[in-house]
Specification:
This protein is an alpha/beta fold. It is about 35% helix and about 20% strand.
Length: about 450
């Protein structure tokens, strides 16, 4: 039933792009039911905090923001309704129900599609505080009208949800459920809708997009989906994130090479390179295979930009195994790299294992890799000076001497650097050819080619 709600809603979205899409879906469902979305939480009647609960720092951030909202609610004498959704609610909602009485409702990841019903329940004369943690099986479709930020020229498209890889350090399967893929025709329908709304770059995401289609009856392939998406005439650029090294295949790489719309960019989270650690992590890929994939990708896509993520301090990571990882970072020369300190997570297999690596040593190892990667990234970026890059203009710049901020194909939003563009004739959403004139560790600087 539409238009049965009223009032003003503000959504705070934490964590990854996958969680942001859930927030956009909840915003769309609430809007369709009559609520008005507002940018300032102080103007809202209801605030939803859509949380991340993946690792300890994310949980701490979520709790800090929830408590800040709780303080605001107390200042307003209870005239604000506070809802906590998402991964933290899925993992700990029932436990936290009694700990933070200001929260009116805790809802897990499986309740995204029922947000209007839950908001309606808050209007009862004496609403009952509760935590609703159901099976995490929600999967959005093109029928869900996401609320995108005004003027968005870039948007993520979730082609699957959940994960069945069961890495021993990761709580995602328990938070998000088993891997489940959207049907190709449904994905195409949403992509066409996004393009019609002015989106110029679509970023395909999922917990592991290279596992796409394995759970569907006809087992559609990611390579076929990419080809179909590339045929959308109004769409200019496609990007892939979250490709598991155990699952990326030659046909995907060749499809990327065969379509100019697909960015020569691969996010390949290897997590480690020592075989004993990879086995302990249940990564289902060997160090030899990881190296083969990198060589293979660079042979098929010579100009590919490679991003990876690494975990340091995992149980069993001896000094020798860490040095092996550091040597690999020097050898592979990734264009972009992120490092996570191992976080022992309840409910995961690795949480039961003894770990004698101190937090201080974990931080030292993280800093050592980031220092090495900073030099690599600077060298890679400087090698682009004098070359031409196609830049998507995304916003105006307040940096002196540069009119715009954009991204070239080798830069994904949020996780990589940006390209600053000197004065020129352009509008938000335009693609412009730029000569790269400067570079630092993360960002590029360019001048438009007339």
């Amino acid at each position: 039933m539409k238009n049965h709600l009223a009032g003003k809603l503000h959504i705070i979205s934490l964590g990854c792009a996958k969680n942001l899409i859930d927030s956009e879906v909840m915003g769309g469902l609430a809007h369709d039911s009559g609520m008005t979305l507002v940018e300032n939480p102080q103007n809202a009647d209801v605030v939803i905090v859509n949380t991340c609960g993946f690792i300890q720092p994310a949980k701490e951030e979520a709790l800090e923001i929830i408590l800040t909202c709780a303080q605001e609610k107390n200042k307003r004498g209870g005239n604000l309704k506070l809802v906590v959704a998402g991964c933290l609610a899925q993992r700990y909602g029932k436990e936290l129900l009694g700990e933070i009485p200001e929260v009116d409702l805790w809802i897990g990841t499986g309740e995204v599609g029922r947000i209007a019903k839950h908001l309606q329940s808050l209007k009862a004369p004496t609403p009952r505080r509760t935590a609703i943690v159901s099976k995490p099986d929600f999967l959005m479709t093109a029928r869900h009208d996401r609320i995108l930020p005004a003027g968005s020229v870039t948007a993520c498209l979730k082609i699957s949800d959940g994960c069945s890889n069961c890495c021993t350090y990761c709580a995602i399967p328990s938070i998000r459920g088993k891997a489940r893929s959207r049907r190709p025709e449904d994905i195409l329908l949403e992509a066409e809708s996004l393009a019609a709304r002015g989106v110029r770059e679509i970023i395909l995401i999922g917990q592991d997009i290279t596992a796409y289609g394995r759970d569907l009856k006809n087992r559609p392939k990611l390579s076929g989906l990419l080809s179909d998406l590339s045929s959308i005439s109004s769409l200019r650029r496609l990007r892939l994130l979250y490709t598991h090294p155990a699952h990326i295949t030659t046909d995907v790489l060749e499809t990327m090479a065969g379509h100019d719309k697909i960015c020569r960019y691969i996010d390949l989270p290897v997590q480690h390179i020592d075989d004993a650690i990879l086995i302990a992590m249940n990564r289902k890929v060997s160090s030899t295979r990881i190296r083969e994939i990198i060589r293979h990708a660079r042979s098929i896509l010579p100009d590919v930009a490679l991003r990876t993520s690494i975990i340091v301090g995992f149980p069993g990571e001896t000094p020798k195994r860490f040095e092996r990882l550091l040597d690999f970072v020097r050898e592979a020369r990734f264009d972009h790299l992120g490092v996570f300190i191992y976080s022992r997570e309840e409910g995961t297999a690795a949480a039961k294992w003894p770990s004698r690596i101190s937090e201080r040593e974990k931080e030292r190892r993280r800093d050592a890799i980031m220092s090495e990667q900073a030099d690599i990234s600077l060298a890679v970026n400087r090698s682009l000076i004098g070359k031409t890059q196609e830049v998507l203009i995304e916003e105006k710049s307040d940096r002196r001497g540069y009119a715009f901020i954009g991204r070239c194909p080798r830069q994904a939003p949020e996780v990589d650097g940006v390209t600053y563009v000197k004065d020129g004739n352009a509008a938000i959403g335009d693609f412009v050819s730029c000569t790269i004139t400067g570079a630092d560790h993360y960002d590029l600087y360019g001048k438009m080619i007339s």
